[in-house]
Amino acid sequence: MEHSKHTRVTEFIMQGLFDHPHHQGLFFVLFLCLYIAVVMGNSLIIVAIIIHPPLHTPMYFFIANLALIDILCTSSVVPKMLENLMQEKKTISFGGCITQLFVLTSSLVTELPLLAVMSYDRYVAICHPLHYVKLMRKEICIPLAVSVWAVGTISSFINILLVLHLDFCGPNLIQHFFGEFPTILALSCSSIYVNEIMMFMAYIFLAMGNFLPTTMSYSFIIITILKIQSSKGKQRAFSTCSSHLLVVTLYYSTTIYTYMQPTSSNLQDNDKMVAIMYTLVTPTLNPVIYNLRNKEVKVAIRKILPFTTK
């Protein structure tokens, strides 16, 4: 059966998260609780940073941006996933899929340069503390944050425009629980050569381009910490960057696994598990990581939630 060149599907069918229909209710409750934790935890971090003057520093300014990214990333995927968990036919409209794809990729791409900027902030604080106020003043931090968001938004927008120029004339089954560029491109009946080239360039320039300066920053940080004579000094210096280092490790470990895992029969299931990690688990952990040993954040949260224990 021949399809018109301009035929477009009006909706996509999602494969879903798990093939356990009897456990859908349990998964719904679990992921709903995690989603609430992501939104509430990261919102709490943002409000705490805004209302507590001691947190008005470059490091916490960028942490607030990271919290906002986590909310956007999770909110682009989880509400629709929860809706589909309770439905037999798991669908998403073409426009809804494109919107989800744009918000998700914008947030994920934005996080790459943001983590690099946060690594540079820790590098300046530990390796050049006397110049920190000058190098990380407001006039520099705000343009850095704007640039980070611009990179993610523009990169995602360009790739979305290229997707919109493709023809989708069937099939319409997305073998995932949300739309990603590879799964969407696989359904196109047009040539996706340009799309693949652009995705490859984005991966090289954005992923590797931000991974290298992040690695370099922490290499200099580790060298500087090792040169400190006192154990208390080393501990104090490491505590200022340990939270961010853990976040970077979580983010890049899932990213590297996604792109470097070998092809296998369980590839789709592995992809789903990794997707759960970077869209739900990591955004849930980030507020805990930054709040766990930080006295100033705890003080700010007590202002918002007076009933919390000391």
Would you give an account of this structure?
The chain is mainly alpha-helical and 310 residues long. It has one domain (11-304): Rhopdopsin 7-helix transmembrane proteins. The chain has helices spanning 24-51, 58-85, 94-127, 132-135, 138-164, 181-185, 193-227, 231-239, 242-260, 267-292, 295-304; strands at residues 11-14, 91-93, 173-174. The protein has a three-stranded mixed β-sheet. α2 packs across α10 (267-292). It is globular. The model is unreliable at 1-6 and 262-267 (pLDDT under 50).
Name the features.
single chain; 310 residues; mainly alpha; Rhopdopsin 7-helix transmembrane proteins; 3-stranded mixed sheet; globular
- Give the count of structural domains: 1
List low-pLDDT spans: 1-6, 262-267
Integer-rounded radius of gyration = 21 Å
Largest sheet: 3 strands, mixed
Give helix and strand order, one letter per element, not per position: EHHEHHHEHHHHHH
Tell me the β content: under 5%
Q: What class would the helix/strand composition place it in?
A: mainly alpha
